[in-house]
Amino acid sequence: MTLNIADGTSFIGELTTIGIATGRERTVKVRLVFYNGKFYASRRTEDGDWFKNITNNPLVIVEVDGEKIKGRAEIIKDNRVSEKISSLKYPDKRKEENRIVIEITPKR
Known about the structure:
Blueprint: E1 9-18, E2 25-35, E3 38-43, H1 49-56, E4 59-64, E5 67-75, H2 79-89, E6 100-106
Antiparallel strand pairs: 1-2, 1-4, 2-3, 3-6, 4-5, 5-6
């Protein structure tokens, strides 16, 4: 993995999950954070399709600048990590909202 992304950067990338009902790949554009060698996505609620897909099948692909990176996603329970990711993701008052944070560990 040779990314040209600085640690702590927030950016728009593509996240591919496996659909619960179809078993097919589903790709969405989401704001991600790259931090300490991992990718992070977050939501205020659990109702998004991509979030539901991850809870059903944690294998994902993150696409950044044309590079596809396979990874494994999991929900973060550590509030300190969630707060850090929110502060990196949002420069405004949204960083203070409670969010569900997904950590994506790239497969080596």
